[in-house]
Amino acid sequence: MNTFKELFMKCVFLAAACTSVLAVALICIFLFANGIPAIKEIGIFDFILGRTWRPSNDVYGIFPMILGSIYVTAGAILLGVPIGLLTAVFMARFCPKLIYKPLKAATELLAGIPSIVYGFFGLVVLVPFVRENFDGNGSSIFTASVLLGIMILPTIIGVSESAIRTVPEQYYEGALALGATHERSIFWVVLPAAKSGVIAGVVLGIGRAIGETMAVMMVAGNQARMPAGLFKGVRTMTTNIVMEMGYAAGLHREALIATAVVLFVFILIINLSVSILNRRNLNGGS
Asked: Which of 149, 102, 80 is nearest to 121 (CA)?
C-alpha cells in the first residue's frame, strides 16, 4: 500500500513539473510561430534597427522601443538596486527588533500593491513633480525610471535579505575574530558570501522592470520615436504591444507579437548571463 502511495505521489509531482514545462513550451511555440514569419516579411534588420514605427504605412521598426525599454530599465536599476540592497543589509544585520516587523510588513505590502495603483501614484504625484521641477511635461524616461525603481524594491529587498541571512554565522564571527569591525565584517565578508542570492534578486528586479506595462504606460509619454532626452517621452516594447494590440490586424498584429519575441529573447539573455556568472563564481572564477 505504501509503495502504491509513493508511486502515485511521484506521478503527481511529475505531472506538476511537466505542467510548468508545458506552459513555457506553449508560450514559446505561440510567440515564435506567430512572430518569426512577421520578422522575415519585414526584414530582421529593418524590424530591429528600424527607427520608424508607422503601422498605417506598413513600416515596423522597433529600435526606439528597444532603446526605451533599455533606458527605463537602466534608470530603475540605478535607483532601485542600491536602495534595495542597503535596505536588505539593514534589515538582516542592523535593524533593531522594535522596528523590524513594521519595516518588513511595509516592504511586503509594497510588493502587493497592484501596478495600476503605482501608475496612478506616478500620474498624480511624480509627473506633476517632474513637470514643475525639471524640464518637459513630466511624462518622461526619468519619471518612469523613478516609478520602476520603487516597484522593484520589494523584490530586491526580499531576496537579498534572505540570501544574507543564509550566510553561516561563522563567516561573520571569523571576520570579527580577525579584528574586523561589525560594518567591515558585513560588507566585506557576509555580503560577498551572499552575492549569488543578491544577484538573483537583482535579476528578478530587472525582469519586473523590463516586463512592466501598465504603470510605465501611464507615466512614460508613449511616443513611438527615438528617445530625445532624460525628460522626454518614450515608449517601451511592452506598452507598444498593449496600446496597439486591441485594434491591430494582419502584419501589424504579427509585428506586435514579434516585438514580444524580442522582449522574450532579451529576458532570456539576461537570465542566461546571470546563470553563467553564478556558475563561474561557484567554480571559483575558473
From this structure: 149
Q: How confident is the model at residue 285 (pLDDT cuts 50, 70, 90)?
A: very low
Q: What cell numbers appear for 99 in the block?
A: 522596528
210 pLDDT more than 50: yes
pTM for this entry: 0.85
Paired with 234 in beta bridges are: 221
Over residues 213-237, mean pLDDT: 86
CA 262 to CA 268: how far, in whole Å? 10
Q: Which three cell numbers stand for residue 259?
A: 516585438
Read off the pLDDT of residues 139-167 as tens digits, 9 standing for 90 and up.
Answer: 889 999 999 999 999 999 999 999 999 99
Output the pLDDT for position 282. 64
Q: Which residues contact 225 (CB under 8 A, 6 or more apart)?
A: 64, 235
State the pairing for strand pair 59-60/53-54: antiparallel
pLDDT score of 283? 65
Q: How far, in Å, CA of 35 to CA of 3, rounded?
A: 47
* Whole-Å CA distances, 257 to 6, 27, 33, 114, 253: 43, 11, 10, 25, 6
Residue 201, H or E segment: helix 195-211
Contact 155, 113 (CB under 8 A): no
User: Can you tell me the distance from the alpha carbon of 266 to that of 269, in angstroms, rounded to the nearest whole number?
Assistant: 5
Nearest to 103 by CA among 83, 122, 88, 82: 88
